[in-house]
Design goal:
There is one protein chain. The chain has 210 residues and is of the alpha/beta class. It is built from 7 helices and 9 strands; from the N terminus they run βββαβαβαβαββααβα. It has a single domain, classed as Alpha-Beta Complex (Spore Coat Polysaccharide Biosynthesis Protein SpsA, Chain A), CATH 3.90.550. The structure holds guanosine-5'-triphosphate (GTP) and magnesium ion.
């Protein structure tokens, strides 16, 4: 059994490919959080933890490209805006490292120890997926399946799952060995995984930290 997986073996994929319906159709990743576009904020927090990073976006690609990492839109095989698993497919098709981690663009305060903690759990349990479990506003711990570390060899399984009409991340990961990693340990910020679906939520998040 390996002790853990080095961050250098992981490609981080920033998921910014959604419609942003609850944000009035805005391209969420380009909305400012304390003056920095959400996707760039995510990139700055993620890059020190992983070997490679890419952004998955479907609109305003030039704006995302200006952040200096590769940007890939969904190939469209699942139909337009078919959900986060389309971004997982895009990432797995481009991933050149043994592991891939997805992170959404709308959760700017996510834990700075995200990668080592998921990597340690994946290695310890010899699992295919390590998924964040974090407290929501009501204090209940829930899986946050868009924060998902996986083996890069999962593309074939995902192709089969989506070809059968599957669109839910947790329904797919449930077909494999998945470890949930709790982020409610002593010292963890209970608000670290709060995300912004609306502009009001984005402004609430901005108010949490200077
Ligand atoms: N590649 C890709 N990513 C998506 C798609 N839909 C959602 N996502 C991403 O998945 C993550 C979680 O999605 P949501 O929070 O629902 O974001 P959203 O779909 O843009 O917003 P709503 O339209 O309000 O649901 C976000 O990081 C989105 O960018 C999609 O069709 N393709
Ligand atoms: Mg959505």
């Amino acid at each position: 059994m390996i002790d853990t997986i080095d961050g250098a073996e992981i490609t981080g994929v920033i998921l910014a490919g959604g419609r942003g319906t609850r944000m009035g159709g805005a391209d969420k990743g380009l909305q400012n959080f304390n003056g920095v576009p959400l996707a760039l904020h995510t990139l700055l927090r993620l890059s020190p933890q992983v070997g490679e990073v890419m952004i998955n976006a479907n609109r305003n690609l030039a704006a995302y490209e200006s952040f200096g990492v590769p940007v890939w839109p969904d190939a469209g095989g699942l139909g337009e805006f078919s959900g986060p698993l389309a971004g997982f497919i895009t990432g797995l098709e481009r991933c050149e490292t043994p592991y891939m981690l997805t992170v959404p663009c709308d959760t700017p305060l996510f834990c700075e120890e995200l990668v080592p903690r998921l990597a340690e759990a994946l290695a310890r349990e010899n699992a295919d997926f390590a998924v964040v479990a974090a407290p929501e506003e009501d204090g209940q711990l829930r899986a946050q399946p868009v924060f998902c570390l996986m083996r890069a060899g999962m593309l074939e399984s995902l192709a089969v799952f989506t070809a059968g009409g599957g669109r839910k991340i947790d329904a797919w990961t449930a077909q494999h060995k998945t470890v949930l990693v709790p982020f409610n340990q002593p010292g963890d910020d209970p608000r670290a995984f709060f995300n912004a679906n609306t502009l009001a939520e984005l402004h609430q998040l901005e108010a949490l930290r200077p």
